[in-house]
Batch of 3 targets.
Target 1
Amino acid sequence: MNTEPKDSPLPATEPAPQNTRRQVRLPLLLALALCCGILLGSNPFKPSDQNPDGTARGYLKFKEILSYVDRDYVDSVNAEELSDYAISRMLERLDPHSVFIPAKQQQQASSFLQSDFDGVGVEFNIFHDTVTVVSPLSGGPAEQAGLQPGDKILAVNGARVSGMHTTTEQMFNKLRGTRGSTVLLQIIRRGMSRAMNVQVTRNRIPNSSVDVAYMVDNQTGYIKVSRFATGTYDEFKAALGDLRRQGLTRLVLDLRGNPGGYLDRATKMADEFIGGTKKIVYTDGKGDQYDTQTYSRVAGEFEEGPLVVLVDEGSASAAEVVAGALQDQDRALVIGRRTFGKGLVQQPITLNDGSELRLTIARYYTPSGRSIQKSYRGGLEAYEQDLKNRQQHGEFFHADSIHFADSLRYRTAHGRTVYGGGGIMPDVFVPRDTMAFSAYYTRLQSHNLVRKFALDYVQAHKTELEALRFEQFSQGFRISDAQLQQLVAQGTQEGVAADATGLRRCSGLLRGQLKALIARSAYGKSAYFQVLNEEDAEMQQALRVVNDGSSTLMNGLSMK
């Protein structure tokens, strides 16, 4: 027996009310249209005058379908989640960077660009499902409470976190909280037979975006900027001023892996290097509303002197704006590999429920007219595979694997040739270190064995390391063959099979990583970067260039 519902014909003796459904729905549609008009009218970002009727029809259609699904679908549904999903998929049709952030994720998404947070101030890692302190922040609540590198956190406020498959995000949520509140940590320390409780009072923790600033030699400074957050420019200005007082006359600015952030912080940083009134960046959007041009306007801290900018495929957005401006104005040489190619401007729009729409409103262009944005015509999936494709095509290893059409050729202020087409192409190409692609090295890292070995070493040799100044450690400490074999043995115990060929290939990289991680726990973040830079090919190339201001590479640049 067929039980599907069917439209039943009305009895012949009864007149068919053919207009009933229309008469009922028409007022509803008119009411919805009125509501739509009110909503759109109250929205400061009004639809384009080109197609207001299409926008209204689309709004009504979506609302009508969502209502039917919520009311009549065979199973219960979460209408809000469906709406969020539909919005996200709609934005994917626009470009890769227009996104919708639900209210429950908005705070976490915004925290990346904040320069501080409330918490205990501890860097941790998770080894074998055990939360282990890598380093307490110097002067922070955790250090003041007595936490040390290597301490294992067993419980937070009585809730076990060890052996519970605790994620990094879950630990962040447990350790962060309102300033002045307390958190009780149960820890076990090397050499102790019993766990102990430590009470930590949360405080404001700086979330620095200038990772490190130090003098490489008597004249050459190095500054690494990891992102452009709320406090980045102030941090950078203070760091540059401090290095100038130490005698800085030439600088390496490291923007590798910097994903961007606030544009105005980036342009202020560029202004510190560019003298006079020169263009830094311009944007072009629909109509004139979002068209802007930004020029240098202040007397900067370092407008003359050799300057090199380090970039790689992880440098994006605001980082590309800085690199592109300094390159186009012939103020700096850019060294490394082609940058990511993110040149779309997003406007954050807070919605009524606390969620956020980040809508692309314009494109970034360098002073010479190059668009920073790479193509996304192939769709989101192809766009997300771009870096993988670059690697497969050899771009990370060979400069001649990159080909530009003549139409993408541009000229800098002094006539040097640069290319558009997505990302910033460096003046000096440095290939990626192929040792990083050792499968054995990758397996060791994926099991967190390199970090664990370094932390265990610091705990076992704490007295010896405390007796050494960092300068002594930097010059005299070496990872021996015997220590590498100890790492191999630990890997075997953890299911990472020994690989003699793989070890030979990545031994130099492992020695540098282990030494840097030991320095991080024993001497702090600055020590970590100094050790890494001693062996880093891009950094060494940058130093060779910046220290030779008379080289042909520097010819034509506005340096004195």
Note: Residues 1-45 have pLDDT under 50 and may be disordered.
Target 2
Amino acid sequence: MTDQQGGVRGWAAGRKGALSRLRFTSLRLRLVVVFGLVALTAAVSASGIAYWLNREAVLTRTQEAVLRDFRQEMHNRAGSLPAHPTQDELQRTAGQMASSSQRFSVLLVAEDATGRTVYGNSGGLNGFELEDVPKTLRAAVIRQQDVTDGNKSPYHLYWQRIVDHGTPYLVAGTKVIGGGPTGYMMKSLEPEAKDLNSLAWSLGIATGLALIGSALLAQAAATTVLKPVHRLGVAASRLGEGKLDTRLRVSGTDELADLSRTFNNAAEALEKRVAEMAARDEASRRFVADMSHELRTPLTAITAVTEVLEEELDSEAGGIDPMIEPAVRLVVSETRRLNNLVENLMEVTRFDAGTARLVLDDVDIADQITACIDARAWLDAVDLDAERGIHARLDPRRLDVILANLIGNALKHGGSPVRVSVRETEDELVIQVQDHGPGIPEDVLPHVFDRFYKASASRPRSDGSGLGLSIAMENAHIHGGEITAANSPEGGAVFTLRLPRDTSPLTEDPEDRAEKDKGSGDGAQGETP
């Protein structure tokens, strides 16, 4: 069942990937569409022009040949008829005219000696009759025009193209000059129409092939253009992942090659800049670590002396001159503060160097919090809401550091009583430290865990180092947890510590962890301990 689901998911993912590559926002698809539209427009335009030119040429050539033959037949045969021919004469002459090389149908109209209108039909095309001739054409043929210098003849030859039952025809007519019959001709243009239809099909097929060819060319062009763009995107992603040695292979002299060179130059400059910053950061951390370490030796001696002075201050013998007692107390407090600062700096240095490690143990959370409060004489200032029996596997020393900093900060800025509550979920431990002070200004909340951050430059000098909350956050992070700061609706600040119930996986070697995960994945029916 799992394999089937995996196969379905794989098919769906592949289909989704294919659709994403074909979406209209894809540059490849847009290139293919644009190429196709350009090719289609060019092919249709060229085919349309070619079809129109060939159509006019074919029809004009056929029309001129037919009209020339009809004019010649009217002059030679109809012109030889008497002014008032009989119907038999018209019929015979129409048949002779229709037997010409162009094979058109002929209709002759005249008046006989009695004034009756007679007709002579060649008999083709189901009997060519006068009703088959458009009225406008008949009116133009029999209309007599004035003879002038520019018009030598009172009658002219007129023609018109018509379509009857889907078949194209050429119809023409003229009148014999000097008296005689009126002749009409009808010629089928179906062969020419078939030739033009074949030409249209050929041009359509050529247009389709041109469209397909343009799509293939567009695909090839898109591949040529998009491959370097894809490589550039992959290189940019690798650069964003921190692989600053990523470079592109440059070939050619076009704009894409220039872009690749620009990317390589930018990556090289960025790598140098990051290396310089890393070197300066490492030198700064090393300086702080060395200074902190060097300060511990004289601080040890100074601390020993201040402890003696503090004992003298507290002794009943009164061994310290009252005039210098304030100075001695100041020296004692500042020495203690300096000692705390050096210890905090060394702790921060270990975090920055990545040498901080967890020493895990099974801890009763209520007992641990009670021990932290008792060691600092905060029992009267802290309300603890924690059930006994809540256990977690973590580093007790680092948890003590976190709690001491959070509770001490709450007592310093919010006053007592400070409420510490503990609750647990299936795989998470949540500890809240809430005070009853004025709360934290909204503009300060994002920076409360920053090192040496001061909400105001004019804030009075405090006894703290400015590193306590930052160290607490680092200790939470090394456990795989988090600390958040907020203001309670009832007033006061609330710091929430979230830690996993078991941090053992964080202390395992990555290779051992991967081997363990691989081993656990071999058995589908295994139980999680």
Note: The longest helix spans residues 255-314.
Target 3
Amino acid sequence: MLQAEGSEAPIKVEFDNFEHGFPEGFGPGWWGRLAYWIGIAFATFQLYVAAFNYLPSQVVRGVHVGFLVLLTFGLIANFTARSDVGRALGWVIGGAGFFCGLYQWIFYADLIARDGDPTRLDLAVGTLLAVLIFEGTRRLMGAALPLMCGACLLYWFFGQYLPSPLNHRGYDFDQIVTHLSFGTEGFYGVPIYVSATYIFLFILFGSFLERAGMIQLFTDVSLGLFGRTRGGPAKVAVFASGMMGTISGSGVANVVTVGQFTIPLMIKFGYRRAFAAGVEATASMGGQIMPPVMGAVAFIMAETLGVQYSEIVKAAAIPAILYFASAFWMVHLEAGKHGLVGMKRSEIPSAWKALVTRWYLVLPLAALVYMLFEGFTPLYAGSMGLALTVTLILGASITAGASSMVIRTIFWVGLALVVAALSRDGLQIVPVASVVAGLIVITAFIRGGFKALRECRDALAESAKSAITVGMACAIVGVIIGMMSQTGVGTIFGGWVIGLGEKSLFLALIMTMLLSILLGTGIPTIPTYIITAALAAPALAKLGVPLIASHMFAFYYGIMADLSPPVALAALAAAPIAKENPDKIGWEAMRIALAGYVIPFVFVYSPALMLQAGDPMAAKLGFYGAVALATFKALVAIGLFGMVAIGFLFTRLTFVERLVALGAAFCLLGDFPFSDTAGFVLSAALALWQWRQRPPAVVEAV
């Protein structure tokens, strides 16, 4: 809870996990204004990097980490310190961290020249940076991730004393600090590179879209499409959260934004509190796997695999649709089981009217998707999408006072012609930036224009604050990456997975799944994916699993960990909205997301589900035939799992019927003679039996 400006009382905030991040605002008094303007400076620097990219990559990473540490300690002090002295101390510590990042820029040429031969100042700066990153991460996310990275650091220092095969050759202090704090495989590795480029830019993109009114558009369209159907409020939650996931990529952010509306709505129409919150948690976490933006992990995955981001999007598309289809199916069955009805026509807006009125909000997202699939880099596509969003916000502000539709049309057509004239040789950042700058000037001189400009300015500051927890996780996980790259310890675990997989690929997958879920109960999705992918994904690839599928397998279960008690961060975020126990919500979310635990096994055994080559059925049916079969089998399987979890189809299922449904689902997922045939026959028989057992009342449509 924030305190009034000028108050000296501490502000009670829990910083015990990654996803919840900071509370609203920037702190009391001028300390808050300091954080606000530093956030704007941070965002401005990142925009400059995205637009012009003149600085060396190492410098960009260093300054990015410097800003992260500065704002981490500064904001924590703003929200928790009991006095101005405490807040000043936090900012001084953060300033030391900013200097450590700036050190990469000031001494860039010298650091390259003396690579491998650090000075005492280099070692001091590198050590200080490590201490600040560990402590900052502990303050933000709790002790789990720093303790895990600390254990890796201890192994790095003293692993030579362990018995074979766990031992390594041993490394001196200067070797470790240099590798960790000055190379590109430690704090400044691939995760922080992705954070400093793609992730920050897309956080900005999502923030501006939200301020343009995208949440309201998604909500109105969802209500119009599904509000009147059986259990409509829950279907609205699934659809709206899935659409929000296309621009936010953050599960808990979806819960606390969309959930504020959907959870009370579901409760009002008869859903149990735990189930309603579980629906929102399940749908919101799915935002991280929903193209086109997905979560931060997707960008790290693309960079790690060295493939275009569009390839990750294509691979993720069908599994993501299946995930949300499963959640949709679950809430439909739950509504049928308890006789829940939809909303009244008078209570819901028109989806068509919402689209006609605010169709232009879809343009930035459509442009982003088009550019990604045309081969443009995510950095370029995100920059153009962001510029288009800002143009829409400012243009709407300029034309708001125009009474005539003709004048508005002339403005937008004229603006389009100006952009076209400036971009005759291709869409370049300088002409686009010039148009945006011109709109800013015009907006400043019209009535109400300053409100739009303040919205844009606030979006910059809020994006910087939102990027802190993601960025700090990317920084500290560099300890694990650096340790593994220098010691080669990852090959040991990989050897275990390969050895297990030679006996049974299924057991190797189970081992990888358990590792990812166990890691995910204590640390965020990003480091969970990075660790699991580094340890297990290469081994799975050697066992014949397509590389993207092996990495996506690790990713999925990192997400599932956020739904699984005892931690279940998404459930924790939903608990205060639903006024329900987080553990109850977590168990309900696991039940609703049952398909999410199954889909990764499906796309490993049927790579066609991810549009990857190597599917066993491709030889018989061709590639697209294999895709169609894999998708159909997965749809039937998740339909069966929904019946097992909810216990309903046309009427309530008996225990024996649930067992039959479960057996049919496993037949469709299995790989033995006549397994598909058995699965389809059992499914058809069970559906026909349920249809015959249905009550005489009229069966509602979906």
Note: Residues 612-693 form one domain.
